[in-house]
């Protein structure tokens, strides 16, 4: 079974979703604003935002007749925790291998 962080990585594997996610780093934006900067249609941007929202990476709020999307700090924190855990495991495995190699050479 996949963890929350790895599910988010799968969502970000799509280049269009990753471009939308990265565009939101600068602050909240409406679908039309995002679509204007991307080579995909406005309905496609909406569908990608729906997937990002389901993964907990973005949230939205109504502002008049528009919806503004922004990055979700809790979702990003979960993704970072997942990556930090992977990094820690990789460093631990590297240290164990280095110690084992050192012992074999002694």
UniProtKB/TrEMBL annotation:
Q: Which residues form the HTH arsR-type domain?
A: 1-91
**Would the keyword DNA-binding turn up in this protein's UniProt record?**
yes
Instruction: Read off the InterPro entries from this record.
Output: ArsR-like_HTH, HTH_ArsR_DNA-bd_dom, HTH_MetalResp_TranReg, WH-like_DNA-bd_sf, WH_DNA-bd_sf
Record SUPFAM superfamilies: Winged helix' DNA-binding domain
- UniProt xrefs under PROSITE patterns: HTH_ARSR_2 (PS50987)
Q: Give a Pfam family name.
A: HTH_20
Write the record's keywords in alphabetical order, separated by commas: DNA-binding, Transcription, Transcription regulation
Return the protein name.
Transcriptional regulator
Upper taxonomic lineage: Bacteria, Bacillati, Actinomycetota, Actinomycetes, Pseudonocardiales
